[in-house]
Amino acid sequence: MTIRIDIWSDIACPWCRIGKARFESALARFAHRDEVEVAWHAFILDPDLPVRYDGTEVEYLIERKGMPRAQVEAMTQQIARAGAGEGLDFDFDSVVPSSSLAAHALLKYAEATGADIGAVEDALFDAHFRDGEVIADADVLVRIGAAQRLDAGAVRAGLTDPTVVRAVQADLAAAQQIGVSGVPFFVFEQKYGVSGAQPAEVFTQALEQVWAEVHPQVGLTPLGEPDAAACGPDGCAVPTRPDAGAEQS
């Protein structure tokens, strides 16, 4: 019997990038990884963000969070260091703040075609956080899709396909229904939630505990650390201790 993990994530969320890497590291070492079903879901941290924000990522965060510039710069530097620890590149000076709605549409279209959605998501994260691409730009998304062997014309049409749009909206509605307020957010077997970019060891523990219950073995203990780093509507928290984080303020 497989176990299912539903993950809500936003391309505009740096902790989602880090959390994905940590989760996948844990999954790769899990003895029953071939019996784990992973479903990725759309989450939009800032629905009011325009297609392209007229300013830098730091300026956007200052406006959005109301924090001093020095504090925002320290936050982005700390996130970049955490990413480097997972082998990820973050260049916040190059990031172009822009709506992630179209990027989520690409992911839903890719999923419908049977493409490797994890690879497409990684490409989107790299485009946004490393390469300074505008993830709301249809030409950028078509190029990313084509690099993953998706038909360019079909991708362009898929970005506004009503079925794809409804799938994105369904994810957003589901997140609201279960009370997801910050991402990344992991739901194991539609019963247990793990919030934030937890250390890989926490995901390993969660996988093993849920596997034991499903098959069954022993009861579960609470999953994850309550203060893991995550992003919410008001911005991204930074860790207060190694490999963990602070609750979203």
Oligomer: single chain
Our count of helices gives: 9
Strand order of the largest sheet: 2-1-3-4
Mean pLDDT: 91
Annotation, overall tally of beta strands: 6
CATH topology: the name is: Glutaredoxin
What is the percent of helical residues?
Answer: 40-55%
Query: What is the CATH class?
Result: Alpha Beta
Into which percentage range does the β-strand content fall?
A: 5-15%
Low-confidence stretches: 244-249
Radius of gyration: 18 Å
Sheet having the most strands: 4 strands, mixed
Reading the helices and strands in chain order gives EHEHHHHHHHEEHEE
Please tell me the total number of domains.
1
The span between the termini is: 39 Å
What general form does the structure show?
globular
- Find the structural class using helix and strand composition: alpha+beta
Name given to the CATH architecture:
3-Layer(aba) Sandwich
What's the name of the CATH homologous superfamily? Glutaredoxin
Characterize the structure shown.
By secondary structure, the protein is α+β, with helices and mostly antiparallel strands. The protein has a single domain (3-236), classed as Glutaredoxin (3-Layer(aba) Sandwich). It has nine helices and six strands; from the N terminus they run βαβαααααααββαββ. The strands form two sheets. It has a four-stranded mixed β-sheet, with helices on both faces. The chain has a two-stranded antiparallel ribbon with strand order 5-6. A hairpin with a 3-residue loop joins strand 3 and strand 4 (192-195). The chain starts with a strand and ends in a 13-residue tail after the last strand. Mean pLDDT is 91; it is low at 244-249.
